[in-house]
Amino acid sequence: MSRSDEYLREVSEIASRLDRRDVDRVISILYEAWKNDSQVFVMGNGGSASTSTHFACDLNKWVSDEAERKFRAISLVDNIPLVSALTNDNGWSDVYYEQLRNFLRKGDVVVAISVHGGSGSDRAGPWSQNLMKAVRYAKDNGAKVVGLAGFDGGLLKTAADACVVVPADSTPHVEGMHLVLTHLMAEQLRSMISKGKNAGGY
Fold first, then answer.
1. DSSP count for the chain of H helices, then E strands
2. Stated pTM of the model
3. Are 149 and 156 in contact (CB under 8 A)?
4. Residue 128 Ramachandran class (φ > 0 left, ψ -120 to 50 alpha, else beta)
5. Where in the sequence is the domain holding 137, given as residue range(s)?
């Protein structure tokens, strides 16, 4: 078996073990955010920062394309001058927390994307503590938190109101499946919004 065949087999096995109930819980929270005209803030580090940007784009454009009222989604990684200023002045640990202090309102939703879910460490210390600090702030201030994680789900699994944990211990597999999941969620949300519109209401 070639590595290509092996990799794709692994992807298929991971997808088959995803907890569909957790996926549905996340979709439900996001749909309620849209119905209530709440803001959705998305955040992640490294490859998950890219997924954060992509998901916010999909919520604002693809999901909302034919809706009379759009999603109001913001990726907290996208304002590079602000991110670099906060990192320079306050430190990397506050980069998402400080933005939420400015923008978050009760009833908003925070989407945290993290391969290890805030557990584990490397040369710079514990991973993704900036995400976890922002998650705690969101919970303490009346927001819903949804997570996308991998490995064992880490701290994010227990802190979030709903969390999809990719059952894999490979960063490429987790990050790849997170993108699949955000596309799945976007597709489902678009369909739900369309059905509500066709039924004469939201």
1. 8, 7
2. 0.93
3. yes
4. left
5. 3-198
Half-sphere exposure of 135 (CA within 13 A, CB side): 26
Strands 121-122 and 125-126: antiparallel
Local structure of residue 92 (DSSP, 8 states): G
DSSP code, position 22: H
HSE-CB at 38 with a 13 A cutoff on CA atoms is: 21
Q: How many domains does the chain have?
A: 1
Contact 24, 38 (CB under 8 A): no
Check residue 131 and give its pLDDT. Answer: 96
Cα separation, 61 vs 84, whole angstroms:
27
**Could you read off the pLDDT of 12-50 as tens digits, one per residue?**
999 999 999 999 999 999 999 999 999 999 999 999 999
25, two tokens: 């819980």
At a CB cut-off of 8 Å and minimum separation 6, what does 157 contact? Answer: 117, 147, 149, 163, 165
**Distances 175 to 70, 77, 83, 179 between C-alpha atoms, Å:** 27, 17, 22, 7
Give the closest residue to 26 by CA, choosing from 110, 137, 114, 120: 110
Domain CATH number, residue 66: 3.40.50.10490
